[in-house]
Amino acid sequence: MEKPRLILHIGSQKTGTTSIQGFLKNKAEALAVEGVNYVSAGRTNIAHNSVLQAINQNGGKKVAKAMVAEIKAAPDVTHVISSEMFFRRGLAPWFDTHFPRRIKRQTKVIAYIRRQDKYAEAMYKQRVKNGRYQGDPEDFAREQIDLYYGRVLRQFSQVFGQENIIVRPFERRNFPNGDVQQDFAHILGLSRELAEGYDLPSSNATLSREVSEQLGDMRRAGTDINTRDIIRKIIAIKPQGAIRSGDCLSLALRREIMAHHAKYNESIRATYCPDMEQLFDEKDLEDDAAYELPTSLETAIRTEQAKHAIDLAIDQLSA
Q1: Which of 107, 117, 281, 300 is buried deepest, with most CB atoms within 10 A?
Q2: How far out from the chain centre does Cα 196 lie?
Q3: Distance CA 230, CA 248 (A)
């Protein structure tokens, strides 16, 4: 595609954004050599998440002015702005109001989207491990069932043009070497060597339901131990049973969620991904033996594994 002036990466959540943003920040010098600038205005650490806070505190105009100034100061490079917090209704109109038409016409918007049942499960674990939810995962998924990505995409299409919206289903089959970071680098037009030569250990590996729930209990109990450090250590040492996906929602509920979104997902495919036969791969849902929930005995074993994993992580952090 023609090299854009601005790449606006809007997430969404649970689609490898931490890996992408870490790459953009930590490879800034190498990116500059290849004509890419990761915008510093409005960015705290690796992402532009603070922009949303500025908007909510009536500072949106000021931060937008700083971002636009940085982009205008280097007209011959591609600038990147990235935040999973942008994937919500109301943010596209903010860009429309505060960014000049010339920049908007030269912008590509990148959105990675996750299959709705998998997204609901990932968000359940996120809320649980942060101590913000204590209920049943299937109840949580039903509360989150209306995940119509098209509403947000439509708003960005109205601002930047449908032809400038790049939608990527978050599935390894769609990415070079199964790596979302390399896929993003490819969209940016970066050299293959730069994309493949960077490896950031993920801080967002999928913890088991039991580990997530026990970490949530610790957060609510007000422990002095930083649970984020525990998570990083668990991901590094990978104790038995601590890393597990697909362990919260039944096959029946997954089928229900995807049937609920079938019409809307097809609309997204036809609009933004017409070369794809299907937006998401759902072959796993055709297997009647898939996603069997654990028995009481298996749950007890997994609970002990989770306790052991957390204790082991704490011991190593204390050593």
Answers
A1: 117
A2: 20
A3: 22
